[in-house]
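Issue 218. Parser rejects a valid record. Input:
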Amino acid sequence: MEAMATSLRLAVVLSFFASLSLVVRSSSPELQILTAERRVDLSSHIVRTYLTLKVENTGEAPASEVLLCFPPQQAEHLAVVKAAAVIGKKKKTSYQSLEVELANRPDGPNGAKYYSISLLKPLNKGGSVSIEVLYILTHSLVPFPAEISQSDSQLVYYHDSAVVLSPYLIKEQITILKTPSTKVESFTRVEPTDRYGTEIKYGPYEESPPYSYSPTIVHFENNNAFAVVEELVREIEISHWGSIQITEHYKLMHAGAQHKGVFSRVDYQSRPSLSGVSSFKHLLAELPPRVHSVYYRDNIGNISSSRLRTSAKKSELLIEPRYPLFGGWKATFVIGYGVPLNDFLYESTNGDRYLNYSFGCPLAETVVDKLTIKVVLPEGSKNPSAVVPFPFEQRLEKKYSYLDVVGRTVIVLEKKNVVPEHNNPFQVHYQFNKIFMLAEPLMLTGAFFLFFVACTTYLQMDLSIRKFKQT
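Output the parser choked on:
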């Protein structure tokens, strides 16, 4: 009887939770998008999309999140997804950042991926909110033709949709594509479609059902530098004696259309506007202010074709590889410099130290496929931790340098698909006892003292061979 009563109570509890889940599911918020305006900037090899949404809650339950939807081919190349709520109107407009993360839910139709935007406060029935979204795609412009000669311009095509892929009904929307120039070979027409100079406008479209998708292809000229760093390893070595030394190892390539045929340096230098227009021969690196001991070298040695300009706010290093880079060509080099310790190392109220430095790549308009940052802490540092404003991977290593006894702790941060928008400050916190700063001076003093004692003892010793007299 007790077993039967227990099973009966369990059945009642399970039925209660089942009915509760049905109520929650039936009262889930229903959203629709009143207006959607999307602007896609194709002027660089990094595709930046600015999306403005006005979202309305038509359901009974409050809504705490808004979902973004991306097709699989775009989700693979997403580097950044940011969102902000628009507060106020006209001249009093302000923006409040919203948290965006990959939604923990099954894929949508045709493998669509979801991102969740958390609202500042729940959106009640009949309420609306305006949201500004920025998402950035890398490796999304495909060269066509895939190979070009030195005298050819570079043509690429871009896949997208004339309408915004969304899990919600969109009442009205437009999409505008901006190309680098007016040289557009072809583009898909989904009426109404208009073209004005460097802009292609799709829409307005009304009453687009959820998950609507209209494939489009734009084939256009883009001769900008397709600079991609396949791997960047940056080592930041902290010394409490007054400086921070940074060393950056680059594996750079031109990710545009492959170069075919022979390279003529005469044509390249005599007709720069016609020969090799899609190549690049210099890069601009923005370094911190007050840098010193700057060097730039490759596997052969130092490269003198560089110019450094410093100011109170920033330093600019214009570097030129030993040869211009065409599609498919690669170059490896190293940039090193020092910065004052007081500019980037601080002490918190609880006595901990923390480094505050920029995370991304200093090269302008460059994609980094894999970025590794190694922060070498002073010997004796304990409890290291990193604070980075986006997802990353972390591990710890050991490094032995001159006069080290127990080795230095190295905190390693890794991130893939890095773009200029990742140039945000990050912090590395650690604990350090000032007594460890005396370790190396005491070691050197002890070594000199032992050397002095050894020399004195040697000079006082009589090592001559004498003949003993027999009595």
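Fixed in the parser; the record now loads. The mean pLDDT is 86.
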